[in-house]
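hey m, so remember when u said the C-alpha cells were messed up on ur end? i reran from scratch. heres the input so u can diff it against urs
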Amino acid sequence: MSEPLVIAETVNQVAILTLNNPAKRNPLSRAMLASLRDNLARIASDSGVRAVIIRAAGPAFSAGHDLREIVGAGETDRRLLFALCTEVMEAIRKLPKPVIASVGGIATAAGCQLAATCDLVVASENATFATPGVKIGLFCSTPAVAVSRAVPAKKAMEMLLTGEPISAHEAERIGLVNRVVPADRLDDEGMKLARQVIAASSDTLGIGKRTFYQQLPLDRPAAYELTGRVMIENAQTANAQEGMQAFLEKRAPQWKS
C-alpha cells in the first residue's frame, strides 16, 4: 500500500501537513494538490486545530508542478490543474487559522508560490527560493501572484525574469521569509512559532487574518473604513472583553475559544 502524498497529523492543536513525495522533490501534482485541498477543508471545520504547518519530507520543500502533467496535456487538463492550484492557494489565504510554511531545501515555481502564500515562513539555512519558469519557456505567472504580494515589486521581477534562486537569508531580507534557522532546528522552530501565534484566541486570529488580507488591496481611506468597523465589532466579542479585562487586572486571559 502506497504512502499518502500528504501526511496529516495534529500535535497540541497544530495541524502538520507534510508533503510526502521526496523521491520526486514533492511536486505539486494534481493528486498532491487535491490532498492538500481536502486536508485544508477538513481543518477549516476542526475546532481542535488552531494553526497549520506545511512542511515536506526529504531534502526539498517542493519543486513546483509536475511538468509531466503539463507537457502534451490538453487545454482542459491544464486548465483544471492550474485552477486546482489556485483553489489550494486561496484555501490557505481564506483559512481562518494561521498557516506556517516550514521550508527546507528548494522551493521553486509553484513550490515557491505555496511558501509565499502561507501567512508565515520559517526556512532552514540551506533553503532556496526561485521562480525559474522563464528558463523553460513557461513564465511563472501564477507564482508571481503570491511572490509579488510578499516581496517588493523590483525584487519579484528580478526573480521572475532571471529565474535565479535566492538564499534563505536573502529571502528573509526582502520579506519572503520570517525566520532562518539551522536545518536541524527547522521543525522545532516552526512549532515554536505556531505556539507563539496560538497563544491568542482562535476567533481573534480569524478576525485578524481575514481583515489583514481584505484591507491589503484597498486604498488608505477604504482600508481605515474597513478596519475601523472591524475593530468595533472585534471589541464587542467575549474574548476581546476578557483579554482587555485581564490586561487591566494584570492576569492571564482565559480564552473562550
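this time it looks ok to me. The CA atoms of residues 137 and 163 lie 11 Å apart. if urs says something different then somethings off w ur setup not the seq
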